[in-house]
Amino acid sequence: MSNNQFRRGELYFVITGVANTALARRLQRHFRDNGIELTVEQWSVLVHLWKQDNVSQQELCHKTYRDKPSITRLLDNLEKMGLVERKGTPDDRRINRICLTDLARDLRDRTMALANLTLLEGLEGVPPEDIEVTRRVLTKVYENLNLVVAGN
Length: 152
Hints:
Layout lengths: L11 H22 L6 H12 L3 E2 H8 L3 H13 L3 E5 L7 E5 L1 H21 L5 H24 L1
Antiparallel strand pairs: 1-3, 2-3
């Protein structure tokens, strides 16, 4: 059997999906336990905005791998919470720029600390060399699939 074929029980996308879900659930619990009323999905949008603020809604769709209706719903809720503002652009009123509020900026360090704690809990007992191999493999899988998507 070639190295690229699946053996029964080795569905890696299922394993990574289950691990991702477990990490998200733990992070959600940490948020709740620390009085942070934010879903992991909302937080993931904020993470992208903390990296680059004042981006278009379309750019945010692309960066977060979400479709337009999903981003719209998330941004609606983040706006109601006072964490983001939509600002029209003078050149094209159809384009909304998404900007962080001070309240969102104040959440950054607290939520990132909880995310780091969650990751440390998940990686407990995993040797650093295994973490590095996993990072390289998943990065390569992403690059391979991203090239396929970009080529279509």
